[in-house]
Amino acid sequence: MIEADALAIHMNAVEELIQPEGDRNMRGVREGIAKAVQWSPVPIIAKEIGAGIARESALRLREAGVAALDVGGVGGTSFTRIEAMRAKVVEDVTAARVGRTFADWGVPTVLSLLEAGEAGLPLIGTGGVRNGLHAAKAIALGATLVGMGGPFIRAALDGPEAVIAEARLVLEELRVAMVLTGARGIEDLQSLQPVLMGSVAEWVAERPLTRPAGSCSR
Fold first, then answer.
1. pTM, rounded to two decimals
2. Helix pair 79-89, 93-101: axis angle to 10 deg
3. 43: phi > 0 → left, psi -120 to 50 → alpha, else beta; which?
4. Residue 74 phi/psi, 5° resolution?
5. Residue 216 binned pLDDT confidence (cut-offs 50, 70, 90)
6. Which domains does the chain have, with CATH numbers?
């Protein structure tokens, strides 16, 4: 009806498990996604919403035929924490407790980009992206596109013009990051070889990448 270019299927297992009215039957999800791929007249994007996508899931989703992955890593909105708060309001003691326990469950966005990149599909970097520098880092780690929510939601409280102003600031930050890294265009930024440090380097040491960090299908 809206002539969409793609259809995104949201994956939110941990949220459903905490949500008071959540659907806890996870059987047949992969098969259902594969059927949606066959049915849909437009490409299917598999989208996480806060827990990230590990390589094993990315590879299974590729086998199911999805066209791209939206990693939705840990670092942005925690819908698990939100559901824990909702559970507390309705006095669901168990859901509230389990929600607090698993509020930060999942793979952080940086690591999710590296892990999901193993599938060789186009990646959308979301989950805690708050400015143009974050966007540049996501692209250098393999993202084809970058999604942001929080900064624009806050700007929207002040009206449409504030949203436009925020977008311009993000683009300017992205341009500055590109100049400082010598990237003349997005493809140059995508071809940079990131330096992995700290906990990210430790993670990769435990789960070595089969594809160079930052590489993905465009």
1. 0.92
2. 160
3. beta
4. -65, 135
5. low
6. 7-206 (3.20.20.70)
